């Protein structure tokens, strides 16, 4: 089957950073679905895994952690899906990715594709929706039923993939007052169109900008880009006994002591945790994606496609990686068909 993979971990401008390859088609076993991949989207995790390092892969390593497609076969223990079902999912960081014609994925982390979306627009959602949902509702324990309505959330990276769905979840479900960061007019407009009440520039003095808007501090902070750069502002902005969640690993020590006097909490969110460790509640991601699909079909949430880049091949994926590395993407980058 066709796939895009790598043998060496190279800078994205190297034409061998990602290659068009042929690999064997896998066979479904256990609770696995064999999915015929129709569309994928690209996330920062893709280029972080691909980033230069000395390791060499003897067989092509396939990346990609967002897909929508059709169930082509099921393992003997599958109970949630049948052949022919349209699905969307983010997969597992420990298994071959979605940049291939067919992919194996555990049914417990797969959702039914929103009926109102085509495969391309559905592929934009899984990883970011899971991340934003878990960050807001599982880690910070905000009520998705609106019990915390009127509280304030500061979202760093409002126009990125996770921020784009995070704004919607915070506004539409939690009924929070949402302050998103954006540094360009087009990214600010995108964040506003998704429901952000206010915009601040993360390259400026964020606490001062919040005060100018009438907010001495906020109930929740969600760091969806650059923990190192944004943590000091987050610690300054958070209310006493508030909560901060980040999805981005820090490159240097974070001054968590800044939170002590406020008794504020710092949470990590990593959407691959359940699949990586085979946690007893893995199936929560199946339920979560089904709920996201329901909300999309109801018109409560919208897809977050920012740009479509053509077919799933090495050249287009190298282009997507480059756009993400340069920080120029708004919303999600999507590719369809081989």
From TrEMBL:
Stretch forming the signal peptide: none
CDD domains: AL_MDR (cd08252)
GO MF annotations, alphabetized: oxidoreductase activity; zinc ion binding
Superkingdom of the organism of origin: Bacteria
InterPro entries (UniProt xref): ADH-like_N (IPR013154), ADH_Zn_typ-1 (IPR014182), ER (IPR020843), GroES-like_sf (IPR011032), Lipid_raft_assoc_Zn_ADH (IPR052585), NAD(P)-bd_dom_sf (IPR036291), Quin_OxRdtase/zeta-crystal_CS (IPR002364)
Keyword Zinc: yes
Family that this chain belongs to: Belongs to the zinc-containing alcohol dehydrogenase family. Quinone oxidoreductase subfamily.
Name of this chain's protein: Zinc-type alcohol dehydrogenase-like protein
Species for this entry: Paraburkholderia caballeronis
């Amino acid at each position: 089957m066709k796939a895009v993979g790598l043998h060496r971990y190279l800078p994205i401008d190297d034409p061998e950073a990602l290659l068009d390859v042929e690999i064997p088609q896998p066979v479904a076993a256990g609770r696995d679905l064999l999915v015929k991949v129709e569309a994928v989207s690209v996330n920062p995790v893709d280029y972080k895994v691909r980033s230069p390092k000395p390791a060499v892969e003897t067989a092509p390593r396939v990346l990609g952690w967002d897909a929508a497609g059709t169930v082509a076969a099921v393992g003997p223990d599958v109970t949630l899906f049948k052949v022919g079902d349209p699905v969307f999912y983010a997969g597992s960081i420990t298994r071959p990715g979605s940049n291939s014609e067919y992919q194996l994925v555990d049914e417990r982390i797969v959702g039914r594709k929103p009926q109102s979306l085509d495969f391309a627009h559905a592929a934009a959602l899984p990883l970011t929706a899971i991340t934003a949902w878990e960050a807001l509702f599982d880690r910070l324990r905000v009520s998705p039923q609106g019990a915390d309505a009127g509280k304030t959330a500061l979202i760093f990276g409002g126009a990125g993939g996770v921020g784009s769905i995070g704004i919607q979840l915070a506004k539409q479900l939690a009924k929070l007052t949402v302050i998103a960061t954006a540094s360009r007019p087009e990214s600010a407009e995108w964040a506003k169109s998704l429901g952000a009440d206010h915009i601040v520039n993360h390259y400026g003095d964020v606490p001062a900008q919040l005060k100018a808007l009438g907010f001495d501090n906020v109930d929740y902070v969600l760091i969806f880009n650059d923990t190192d750069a944004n943590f000091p502002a987050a610690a300054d902005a958070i209310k006493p006994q508030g909560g901060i969640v980040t999805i981005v690993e820090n490159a240097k020590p974070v001054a968590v002591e800044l939170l002590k006097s406020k008794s504020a909490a710092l949470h990590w969110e990593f959407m691959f945790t359940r699949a990586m460790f085979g946690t007893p509640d893995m199936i929560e991601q199946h339920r979560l994606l089904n709920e996201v699909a329901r909300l999309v079909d109801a018109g409560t949430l919208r897809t977050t496609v920012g740009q479509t880049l053509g077919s799933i091949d090495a050249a287009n994926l190298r282009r997507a990686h480059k756009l993400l590395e340069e920080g120029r993407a708004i919303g999600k980058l999507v590719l369809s068909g081989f």
